[in-house]
Write a structure and sequence with these properties.
The chain contains 3 helices and 5 strands, in the order H-E-H-H-E-E-E-E. The protein has about 130 residues and is of the alpha+beta class. It has one domain. Strands 1, 2, 3, 4 and 5 form a 5-stranded antiparallel sheet that branches. The termini are far apart. It comes from Candidatus Shapirobacteria bacterium CG_4_9_14_3_um_filter_39_13.
């Protein structure tokens, strides 16, 4: 199975995501403000294993609506079989946020896991208390 762009070089994924045209310098500066200069404790990683993505989804999803349920999103994955591409942000080796995407090979771009049709697409993050 061919991997989508950016999977082989996860460390440089920010430059390989057309959906997220993010300037790296601004991200680092923002992270330094948020984490009091502890940006060296931050780690971005990409998870492409569906089982691991499910665990992340179930840990972070608020499960407040149908669109938040893993089984609902999984039904779309079963139909399209696009590569999952969950971007995780860890602080001091603990995952604190995920951006659940998949690679839409027909449009050659990263979009929300489950597609853009389901409402309430968002990234998930832990509260500041945890």
């Amino acid at each position: 199975m061919e991997k989508p762009p950016g999977v082989a070089s996860a460390s440089s994924f920010l430059t390989n995501i057309p959906l997220l045209d993010l300037p790296q310098k601004e991200i680092v500066n923002f992270a330094k403000k948020i984490f009091n200069g502890s940006s060296r404790d931050l780690l971005f990683r990409v998870e492409t294993d569906l089982s691991e993505c499910q665990l992340l989804w179930e840990e972070f999803s608020p499960n407040e609506s149908l669109f938040d349920l893993w089984d609902f999103r999984l039904a779309f994955w079963r139909g399209y079989q696009y590569h999952p591409y969950f971007i995780t942000l860890s602080f001091q080796e603990k995952v604190i946020s995920i951006l659940p995407l998949w690679f839409d090979k027909e449009d050659n771009q990263y979009t929300w896991f489950g597609g853009s049709w389901p409402d309430e697409n968002t990234f998930f993050t832990k509260s500041a208390k945890t």
